[in-house]
Every structure is written in structure tokens, then in C-alpha cells.
């Protein structure tokens, strides 16, 4: 009888934990998506002009960088959370099955580590983009070839969707998580693998407009589809076809007088 009651209590505790996980996840998505929309409406698309990558009057480079990295991390939270949640849920199940304590704390730590990876990527994006903006201001000719270069990046990203490298990264990102190891290391490893898997799609976002809501919605949907669809590899190739067509169209439009 004691063991039966204990099993019932454990099941009830897991159900309460799962409801809490769902509520916190929904709140995190709504808040990050709302903040992203507000920021996007308040700022120009970061690829529209070199000056968009310069500090405003009275703002230091350090505060400007911190502001961008913060915005980037919140934006990536809204974009990546739909595809991350099923993986975190499977991770939680694996922890429950293994009898690990503090499942909620492990889940929160893994999620924090995952988005820490995207924060680091945001810092690298800022440094590279600011350097390119400086070059455009020094050599205006670069600004004239930027539209063709953007189309070429989209084309290359679409081609990458058909590569064996992409297939391996996507398979690793979709793999069922194991409960072994600490949560922080698991989150970092998952973040690095998933960042590699969607590197091409992230590049598309960067060249089409970092703060463009339409570009963000399209890229987020593409990432979610290829990670969660039953035929993920096939979905990745379909996305590649669309990206190749878009890249060719962008290059053609840029080349026409």
C-alpha cells in the first residue's frame, strides 16, 4: 500500500511539474515575442544602413553592444523556443525515468545554457556587423554590391540545406537527449549543435534584416519545421529549394538597373 501511494504521489508531483513547465514556457515565449515586436517597431532594420550599427549620440560602444546582445538573445528566445520545448520535455522525461531529483531546476539550467550559446553568437554577430558597417562607410562601393552579396548568401544557405554536413547536424540536433551529465553542459552542447544545424538559416536572417519581423517569422518557422517535422531531412531540402529561389531572385533584382 505504501509503495502504491508513493507511486501516486510521484505521478501527481510530475503532473504538477509538467503544468508548471508549460506555464513558464508559455509566459517566456509571450514576453520574449512581445519584447521583440516592440523593439523591431522602434528600430530600423539593422541591415538597412551602416549608421544603424553605430552608437547613438551619448551612447558608448559598450552600452550599444550590450543593448544589441540583449535584444538578440530575447529575439532568439522567441524564435528558438518553439523548437526547443519538445527537446526539453524529452529531457525532463529522461530525468524522471532515471529518478533524478530537481527536474525543474535541471530544466531551467539547461535552457539558460542553451540561450547563453545564442547570446555568445549575438556578440560575434555584433562585432562582425559593426566592422562591416565601418568598411561600408570607408568604401561606399561596398554598399552598392551589398544587395548582390545578400542574395548570394541566401543562395549559398539554400545550397547548404542539401549538404551531408547539414544532414548530420540536423540529425544530431533532433536526437533524443540522454539524462547523463550536468544540465549546464547538456544545454551548452544542445545549443552548439542546434546553432550549427541552423547556421544557414541564421545567415539568411542576418542579410535580410535582423530586426525585420517578417524575416524572423519565416526563418523561425523554417527552423521549427525541419526540427520537429517527422521527415525533417526532407523538410530541410524543401526549405533549401525556397531559399535558392529567393537568393536567385534577390541577385536578379540587385543586378537590374
Topology summary:
Elements: H1 2-42, H2 61-97, H3 103-138, H4 141-160, H5 164-174, H6 183-197, H7 199-208, H8 213-228, H9 232-255
Helix pairs in contact: 1-2, 2-3, 2-8, 3-6, 4-7, 4-9, 5-6, 7-8, 8-9
Structural features, described:
Pfam families: PpoB2. This is DUF2182 domain-containing protein. The chain has helices at 2-42, 61-97, 103-138, 141-160, 164-174, 183-197, 199-208, 213-228, 232-255. The relative contact order is 0.13. Mean pLDDT is 84; it is low at 1-5 and 47-51. It has 257 residues and is mainly alpha-helical.
Order of helices and strands: HHHHHHHHH
**What's the helical proportion of residues?**
over 70%
Catalogue the unreliable spans: 1-5, 47-51
- Rg from Cα: 21 Å
Q: Can you count the beta strands?
A: 0
What gap, in angstroms, lies between the N and C termini?
A: 82 Å
Task: Let me know the average pLDDT.
Answer: 84
Number of continuous helical runs: 9
- Class inferred from helices and paired strands: mainly alpha
Largest sheet: none
> Given the C-alpha coordinates, what overall shape results?
globular
- Sheet-strand content, in percent, reads under 5%
Keywords for this entry:
257 residues, mainly alpha, globular, disordered N terminus
State the gist of this model.
Keywords: Membrane, Transmembrane, Transmembrane helix. With 257 residues, the chain is mostly helical.
Amino acid at each position: 500500500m505504501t509503495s502504491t501511494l508513493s507511486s501516486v504521489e510521484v505521478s501527481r508531483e510530475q503532473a504538477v511539474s509538467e503544468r508548471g513547465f508549460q506555464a513558464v514556457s508559455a509566459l517566456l515565449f509571450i514576453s520574449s515575442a512581445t519584447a521583440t515586436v516592440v523593439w523591431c517597431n522602434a528600430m530600423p532594420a539593422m541591415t538597412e544602413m551602416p549608421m544603424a550599427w553605430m552608437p547613438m549620440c551619448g551612447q558608448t560602444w559598450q552600452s550599444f553592444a550590450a543593448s544589441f546582445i540583449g535584444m538578440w538573445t530575447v529575439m532568439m528566445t522567441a524564435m528558438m523556443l518553439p523548437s526547443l520545448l519538445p527537446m526539453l520535455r524529452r529531457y525532463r522525461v529522461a530525468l524522471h525515468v532515471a529518478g533524478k531529483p530537481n527536474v525543474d531546476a535541471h530544466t531551467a539550467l539547461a535552457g539558460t545554457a542553451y540561450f547563453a550559446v545564442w547570446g555568445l553568437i549575438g556578440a560575434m554577430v555584433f562585432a562582425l556587423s559593426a566592422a562591416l558597417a565601418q568598411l561600408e562607410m570607408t568604401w561606399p562601393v561596398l554598399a552598392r554590391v551589398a544587395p548582390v552579396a545578400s542574395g548570394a548568401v541566401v543562395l549559398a544557405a539554400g545550397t547548404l540545406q542539401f549538404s551531408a554536413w547539414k544532414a548530420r547536424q540536423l540529425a544530431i540536433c533532433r536526437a533524443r537527449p540522454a539524462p547523463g551529465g550536468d544540465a549546464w553542459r547538456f544545454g551548452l552542447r544542445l545549443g552548439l549543435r542546434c546553432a550549427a544545424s541552423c547556421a544557414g538559416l541564421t545567415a539568411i536572417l542576418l542579410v535580410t534584416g535582423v530586426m525585420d519581423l517578417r524575416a524572423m517569422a519565416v526563418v523561425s518557422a523554417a527552423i521549427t519545421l525541419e526540427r520537429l517535422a517527422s521527415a525533417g531531412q526532407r523538410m530541410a531540402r524543401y526549405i533549401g529549394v525556397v531559399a535558392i529561389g529567393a537568393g536567385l531572385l534577390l541577385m536578379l533584382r540587385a543586378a537590374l538597373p
